[in-house]
Amino acid sequence: MPESGVEVVWGALSNAWRKAQYEELWLQFRPRGSKDVFDAVRAAVEVANQAVEDAGWGAEVFTEGVSDSDAGPAALMSRAGPEEGVRAWLDAFARHLQDLGMSGKITAAPKAFFPDWLSGEFELPRQLTAFVSYQTLDLTLLDADEQERGWHVPSALTSKIADTATAWGRFNGADVYLLRNIYQTRTKNPDVGPTLADGAARFGQARVAYLRSEPRRLAWASLSTLGRTCYGVMDDTASWQDRLAQVLRAMVAFPGDTDLAFVQYSNALTLGWSELAAGRPELPYVKEWQIRYNRHLDAQYIADAHGIQLLTDAHLAHANDLSDWIIEPLGAGKHLVQAKDLEPWYATIDPDPDTLAKARADFGGMVLTPEIIAANPPPWR
User: Tell me: the pLDDT tens digits for 156-173?
Assistant: First the structure.
């Protein structure tokens, strides 16, 4: 193949396709020369999808989820039908990249799998997780679709969040897994802050996970849409108090840049706040989708009471009675509000029901309801 061309490595691609039982195919463009090819790859995916659609293969061959990696952009052929259609897609993809002046090869994308204990084959207990809502750019300048899909946190703050998250999570001997969009890689470099920040800004979804299998230990940070982030810890050798202290450090790292934060148990490797839909206990008044579509209320209301939360002056103004709570000012109108006794909240996965009921009464009008949502519609609608 000439140096200026784009080579389709069919042998590697067909082997990966066969291993996936001909149902899907992860592919990767590995460029020669400049690595700044993501936009070209995304455009080539659209062109190739249209080409097979026009040729009658659209129902059987389709590629999506363009993600990035150090070796080059990757994409998932989620409908990988008959060989003729797959080859037609790859030919159109390669041809468009070459028309754009690209050179390199299209091959199977390597996949990084978690060890069995973390892969979903075994049910893990929920883990202590901090949910943090960072301040965003002005969302009223975007339409609803744009604001729901992006990260939208200022770039300088994004860099600080990502660098701090990697410093917070890494530990000696850890394996490092990096997710950008829907493609995960494994790296030997624990200092992936810039890459994590780029993934969040570009895709609205990025996660770094540091893990060890013996004894089991895991720390992860997930940056998702609308500045909503999750930090979680699992450690078979640490007490719940020590694990709680670790997630708390991540939660309060940037109080002046935080609209809302709280700690509760969630699934290991939680990617985003959508996990609240399966939270325990269930949200008292609203559903997860109502939280998702009302980001503008994060700095004034909270979906439920927790043992620990970071709140604003506006949150506190809506409260009923916080005399039984420890309130620590953090500056910039932010406060760390925590229960005097954290054991009923975090010693087990489910908080003590009586403790939770009293906390909800204490928080009063701070807890989000459908009536509050109706009275405060999103400014971008």
Answer: 999 999 999 999 999 999
